[in-house]
Specification:
The complex is a heterotrimer. Chain A has helices spanning 2-31, 49-55, 61-92, 98-110, 113-127, 133-159, 162-169, 174-203, 206-212, 219-229, 232-260, 264-267; strands spanning 33-35, 45-46. Chain A is globular and about 70 Å long. Chain A folds into two domains: 1-47, no CATH class; 59-263, MetI-like fold (Orthogonal Bundle), CATH 1.10.3720. Chain A is built from twelve helices and two strands. Chain B has helices spanning 2-11, 16-48, 63-70, 72-105, 111-122, 125-136, 141-148, 168-203, 208-237, 240-245, 253-261, 269-301. The two termini of chain B are 39 Å apart. Chain C has helices spanning 41-49, 71-74, 91-101, 106-119, 135-148, 165-182, 193-199, 217-222, 227-233; strands spanning 3-12, 15-25, 30-34, 56-61, 64-65, 76-79, 153-157, 185-190, 202-207, 210-215, 237-244, 247-250, 254-256, 262-268, 273-276, 283-290, 294-301, 307-313, 323-328, 334-337. In chain C, the strands form four sheets. Chain C has a six-stranded mixed sheet with strand order 6-7-8-3-9-10, with helices on both faces. Chain C has a five-stranded antiparallel sheet with strand order 13-12-11-14-20, with no helix packed on it. In chain C, a hairpin with a 2-residue loop joins strand 9 (202-207) and strand 10 (210-215). In chain C, helix 3 packs across helix 4 (106-119) and helix 3 (91-101) runs parallel beside helix 5. In chain C, 36% of the residues are buried. The chains are: A mainly alpha, B mainly alpha, C alpha+beta. The interface between A and B is large, with 80 and 91 residues.
């Protein structure tokens, strides 16, 4: 009976993993396929056509990719920082309006993206932020904040302020206490927030389209017409590049988390 | 900046006023961004009520709403969005909880299997749309497999899952991202409940199945409900998937709203905003319901994380 | 530095936790705040350090008011019950931290950290991380770190209660030794009367947010200001009686007293009572419990039913129900007005 149940659950687990992995593998195949027509289950031939086009001398891909990564990293760091301070206020202080702030914090997740984007577009036009990188970054940050605040709330609560109190009685000012005592302990959460905010920003299509207009081109925005075009090889190559660059950023951040948090695993 | 604040604070002395101000200073960026956010929403609402001074419209009216709710084409958009969101979210929640249970009971704490389940987080919706096309189009891998197995006569025999009013492709695409999301979202709570109370229940003689349905699942519900709300709201208001995989008509609400918005005749603007506001009000209503439900949960078990 | 509290009151959420406390700790003195949980002693410590604001009164350090000073400027260093070593720093880094933050050169604070580690008998532990150390080692590092901060006043918040019993005595001796060597004004918060009695120059007994008595351990033990104080510091037995014309009479003992006439209870410590080889065997042994080095015996006066406690050195030649005679040293007996 126990074996039967455990088998059933392993089945669910591995079915899920297979369903996740399969499309990604097919993506890989399509990227390198030269011809893959009906009714073949595997490509007829392989070529590097897509990548030659993507990385070719006149291709806009690399500059756009790099600038998009820059924009998203900027968004990520800012979202993590603002999330840290906001979570600090909610977790460690008692103040009027606390409940409101908590509720307000999750609104960008609940509110439909198109409603927000179309509504703020006019506001941004008047503020001169439409069609600018700053404007795009601002809306990305608004979108990512609920996630970073949530992550940092958990981390801030778990770290608490006991070490800060200890540091202050030892004669260390509050600001230096934050930098030398609190920040190192908050780092794993900050890194998680950066990862989360990065992917949210890098994946944005509609928001960037709306606010960036034609002027701010991110990799995601550049990619979509190819997906609509029907050229599966090129769209797969773009998608592969998207996933690879995102995975690279993620792995880097995970490595940094491990470096900062080595002691946490042992004390908890 | 922290150093400057510290210096000012120390200079003014150990003042109670300074202490009271601290949280507000910390919240400043959040508040400013929140202000922007509400300006955006407020503006959308205003424009939906017909207030667009730039066009000479300065009277508030509900006429745009009335038109939308009366025109069958636009009403269909509402129905389509609701249907997609409801079906995908309910399915994703049920299957996601199932997957989570499987993860908890096979004890996957970390390692490659957890990372594999987290993979869809990295994949943007537009790429999921590409997956959908690759697998589920009439020329897709599913059709080809069935054909090779002799179960399909020709391409045309494969059902239209994409670009069709059944929106099946969109729903399945959402499922691909959202089942792992639900599983991962509920994982922390469910594994903590299972390892403490679940173990206790089994110790007392309850079978694993009963333990799951009577103890583990009910106590994980706060996280499950939260996950449901998040994916429902998202599926309802998201643009990418209906745009890339949807039928020509009826369009999902977000897509239709955008069509109205970019219409060169600016008098279509209020229609776009009215559609946005309908989406907004619906999701706000649902989150209000959710908060009312969740407050009960907080009183009962202590909320999102189970603690002794 | 001298620490002086003047009419210090602290209220939290409308509840008065500390009620107008006035206290002076001389420079270099070791004072214990002794009391049961909830009496406000930890709150007092935090108010001294400025972590909790006071609602009234003043904290004066070294002759100057510290009320307007933020916590990190007061020089009131606390060693907490949970020690709070910074988990991302080694032992030496923890100890050197206060000096580093003051701008000391690396060579300087590293050297000081090593010296302090030796003083707390942890030579060689420089690079150990907190998660690699035992409770006793962690506490010694916490102590060394507090010393590194050159405190004006050292505040210890029940630092020994999380340690194994065997370790406590060693730690107490270490703290005393270092306190004397560095001549630091020290306030220890504890609920353990043995700890307070053995370590302090003076004890402030607290209950309900107020100080009941503030004196040397000997004086508090021998001349407690009230029953409450007396009972906190040790076992006490009471004999009912009255004072008339300068003599206290009870059914069992009689001795001169200068208290006014009235009903009283004479408080006797177990040390004042011994089983006498000769005399009226007017007591029976009602309870007898083994404590290792001695037995605790409860003796009941056959005639009046009065109960008195005493200690009998091991091995005990008596058994339950044995009739014995008592010799009571009434010189140190204290008279309290009888309970209403």
């Amino acid at each position: 009976m126990k074996n039967k149940r455990s088998f059933f659950q392993k089945l669910i687990l591995y079915t899920a993993i297979l369903s996740i992995a399969a499309p990604v593998i097919v993506l890989l195949l399509w990227s390198f396929a030269s011809r893959w027509a009906w009714p073949r289950l595997l490509p007829a031939g392989f070529s590097l056509r897509a990548f030659e086009e993507l990385f070719g001398p006149h291709s806009p891909v690399m500059p756009v990719l790099l600038s998009s990564m820059g924009i998203s990293l900027g968004v990520a760091v800012l979202s993590a920082a603002i999330g840290t301070f906001t979570a600090r206020a909610i977790a460690l202080y008692d103040f009027w309006g606390k409940e409101l702030v908590s509720f307000g914090g999750i609104l960008p997740i609940i509110v439909p993206g198109t409603a927000f984007a179309m509504g703020i577009h006019v506001v941004f036009i008047r503020l001169g932020l439409a069609d600018t990188v700053l404007g795009v970054m601002l809306v990305h940050i608004i979108y990512a904040l609920p996630y970073t605040v949530n992550i940092m709330l958990d981390v801030t609560r778990s770290v608490g302020d006991t070490h800060e109190v200890q540091s202050r009685v030892l004669g260390v000012s509050p600001s230096r206490t934050f930098i030398h005592v609190s920040l190192p302990q908050l780092m794993p959460g900050i890194m998680s927030s950066i990862s989360m905010a990065y992917i949210i920003s890098f994946s944005q299509y509609f928001l960037t389209l709306m606010i960036g207009g034609g002027s701010v081109k991110t990799f995601a925005v550049m990619m979509v017409p190819f997906i609509q075009s029907g050229d599966r090889t090129i769209s797969s190559a773009y998608s592969l590049l998207f996933l690879a660059s995102t995975a690279a950023v993620f792995i880097m951040i995970e490595a940094l988390i491990k470096r900062f948090a080595f002691w946490r695993d042992k004390t908890e | 900046m922290a150093r400057l604040y510290g210096k000012v604070s120390s200079a003014l002395g150990n003042n109670h006023i300074m202490r009271k101000l601290e949280p507000y200073v910390l919240l400043l960026p959040f508040m400013l961004l929140g202000l922007l956010f509400f300006l955006g929403i407020g503006n959308a609402l205003l424009q939906s009520l017909g207030y667009i001074p730039a066009l000479g419209l300065s009277e508030l009216t509900l006429s745009y709403y009335r038109e939308i709710l009366q025109k069958p084409a636009l009403l269909d958009s509402v129905k389509v969005s609701l249907a997609i969101a409801l079906v995908s979210s309910v399915l994703a929640t049920v299957l996601g909880v199932l997957l989570c249970a499987a993860m908890v009971h096979t004890g996957i704490a970390g390692g490659w299997r957890l990372q594999a389940i987290k993979l869809p987080i990295l994949v943007p919706h537009m790429v999921v749309a590409l997956f959908a096309v690759t697998f589920m189009s009439q020329n897709g891998l599913l059709a080809r497999t069935l054909y090779q197995l002799g179960l399909l006569g020709s391409q045309g025999d494969f059902p239209q899952l994409l670009y069709d009013q059944n929106n099946a492709g969109i729903i399945i695409a959402y499922l691909w991202k959202e089942i792992p999301f639900v599983a991962y979202f509920v994982l922390a709570l469910m594994s903590s409940v299972s390892s403490t109370l679940g173990e206790a229940a089994e110790n007392l003689g309850a079978s694993r199945l009963r333990t799951f349905f009577h103890i583990t699942l009910p106590l994980s519900m706060p996280a499950v409900k939260k996950a449901f709300l998040i994916i429902f709201a998202f599926a309802f208001g998201a643009y990418e998937l209906p745009f890339l995989l949807g039928a020509t008509l009826p369009k999902a609400l977000p897509v239709q709203a955008y069509v109205e918005y970019v219409n060169p005749d600016l008098r279509h603007r209020p229609y776009a905003m009215a559609m946005n506001s309908i989406m907004l009000l619906l999701t706000l209503a649902i989150s209000a319901v959710y908060y009312w439900l969740l407050r009960k949960d907080f009183k009962g078990t202590g909320g999102g994380r189970y603690e002794k | 530095m001298e620490l002086s509290l003047q009419n210090l009151s602290v209220a939290i959420s409308g509840n008065e936790i500390l009620k107008s406390i006035s206290l002076t700790v001389r420079e270099g003195e070791f004072v214990s705040l002794l009391g049961a949980s909830g009496c406000g002693k930890s709150t007092l410590l935090k108010a001294i350090a400025g972590i909790i604001p006071q609602s009234e009164g003043s904290v004066i350090i070294g002759g100057k008011s510290a009320d307007m000073l933020p916590t990190h400027r007061r020089g009131t260093v606390i060693v907490f019950q949970d020690f709070r070593l910074f988990p991302h720093m080694s032992a030496a880094e923890n100890i050197g931290f206060p000096l580093k933050m003051r701008g000391a050169a690396r060579s300087e604070y590293a050297k000081t950290a090593l010296e302090l580690l030796e003083k707390v008998q942890l030579k060689g532990f420089e690079n150990r991380m907190p998660h690699e150390m035992s409770g006793g080692q962690i506490q010694r590092v916490a102590l060394a770190r507090a010393l590194a901060a050159s405190p004006n006043v050292l505040l210890l918040d029940e630092p020994f209660s999380s340690l194994d019993v065997n370790l406590r005595q060693d730690m107490r001796s270490l703290v005393i030794r270092l306190q004397r060597e560095f001549e630091i004004t020290t306030v220890l918060v504890t609920h353990d009367r043995h700890e307070a009695l053995t370590m302090s120059d003076r004890i402030a007994l607290m209950a309900d947010g107020s100080i009941l008595q503030y004196d040397t351990p000997e004086k508090i033990f021998q001349s407690p200001a009230s029953r409450q104080v007396a009972e906190y510091l040790g076992d006490a037995s009471y004999l009912e009686g009255f004072v008339k014309d300068g003599i206290f009479k009870s059914g069992i003992v009689e001795f001169p007293s200068d208290k006014p006439n009235g009903l009283y209870q004479a408080m006797l410590r177990p040390s004042m009572v011994r089983i006498a080889p000769k005399g009226d065997k007017s007591f029976r042994i009602a309870e007898l419990s083994y404590q290792g080095e001695s037995y605790s015996a409860l003796l009941e006066h056959l005639e009046t039913g009065a109960k008195i406690r005493t200690l009998i050195q091991s091995p005990c030649p008596y058994r339950l129900e044995d009739k014995v005679a008592l010799s009571i040293d009434t010189d140190k007996a204290i008279l309290f007005p009888a309970n209403k």
